[in-house]
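Q: I have two molecules that I believe assemble together. Could you output structure tokens for the complex as a whole instead of separate predictions?
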Amino acid sequence: MTPSNADIVIDGRGLEPPEPLVRTLEALDQIGPAETLLVLLPHEPYPLYRALKLNGFSWQTTRRPDGTVEVLIQHQPQ
Amino acid sequence: MQALLSFEQAPPIAAPFRFFLTAPLFAILAGTLLLWSGPELLASRWTPSALALTHLITVGFMLQVMLGAMIQILPVVAGANMARPLLVSSLVHAAIVPGALLLTAGLLTSQPLVLRLAVLLLGIGIALFLGAAGHALVGVRSTNPTIQGLKLALIGLAVTAGLGMLLAVARDGSSGLPVLQLTAIHLGWGLVGWGGILLAAVALVVVPMFQITPPFPAWFAHGFSWSVLAVLSSWSIVVGAGWQRPSAVLAAAVVLTVAVFAALTLQVQRRSKRARFDASQYYWRLAMLCLLAACALWFAADSLPALAQRQEWPLLCGVLALLGGFMSVMVGMLYKIVPFLVWLHLQNLGDGRVAAPSMNKVIAARQIDRQLYAHVASLVLLLAAVIWPEWFTYPAGIALVLANVWLLYNLLTAVAFYRYQRLKMVAPTSAIPPPQGTC
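A: Yes, here they are, computed for all two components at once.
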């Protein structure tokens, strides 16, 4: 999975909590088995990680030089 | 909508809430003590009632909020999950509440037995918390400055509590310990090593997150907690050794770092993208302005001997730092943390079938605004009471009680909202009457 070709992108920077979490959880309902969701945030979203683990998603986190945290999400392989 | 929390990972809502709901009770007691003691309380920072009042705010109000917030914040910002959070919270709370009450009684009466009991209970409660929080943080890499700050703040809490217990036991004067120097070090670690480092660590996350601002500058985020701890440790050693000149220079450096934090926070806050400030932002602004004023007053007293001789300046500094700085910022944060937790737990309870109501509905904005005005009034009146105790002590006491009864009411409103919504979610078909007033 690579961030550049994610199927859905959510830019949560500049949104007040819990809006980034709400939008991400809503988007999780929409992504198909082979699709990816990219979430951009100003900090590491530990509560989101817990929710992803709980709901059967895998993720990959990278940090940009400007401090933005990129979380690339997809369904866990069956 | 997916499930949000698992009960093994997230602290139940009751874990932090017991601390948040107890905190205003201590501030109400502080106001009551002001009314009971009268103007004599403010004759000096060393009167038994002034010491008791100070510890009602620090060990009563502040410690409750700080521990409750840490129990919640550790998993959210550091991914550090405390084992059995509800049990730890219950035990810590059960120890520190009577501990703080006994400490107040002991400072008022100078009864060694009461003070020793207070030391025992507070020691158990704080040691338990340090053990649980330290265990949760073991193996958590400091991938951001907030995690680093949380770890260092725990060292600050340990030093503050250790020195405080030593001073409480030594209060009968028979120990031969250098009480004045130890008191100064205890105060420095409590305000800066524990309170300041924790506040800055949390600010790095919550100011940009809730106030939609740019991040703090990297040099500050990475350097603040370590610099403060290094300078504070050096200052403590020098004070202990009795070296006057270097201790004055290092003390000035500590105060300067606090002033830099307050000034930077104000600067970051000015760049908020929110169209309109809410009460929480005003609370932050008030807190940072008060911290700056306390630092300025400290420097003025340091350089003007005429001011340094007056009894009022340390009291003014104390009121500005504790009531104006720490209490303001904590109340401001409670108005974000509490609705967020209510939303989070309701959302989880809905399990994707029922969406939780908006965070803004948990406590009405106008109720928060009014409580902010009451808090500002209590701060202004207490500052005036330091200068003109005969005129303003009683109004300040009444205002402090009112502001914190109001805070308690607002927090109870959030609890009532949570209970009502939870009932609605688990019994969707039944007709549930709306909540009357509070719980």
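A: One point stands out. The domain at 3-75 of chain A is CATH 3.30.110.40 (Translation Initiation Factor IF3).
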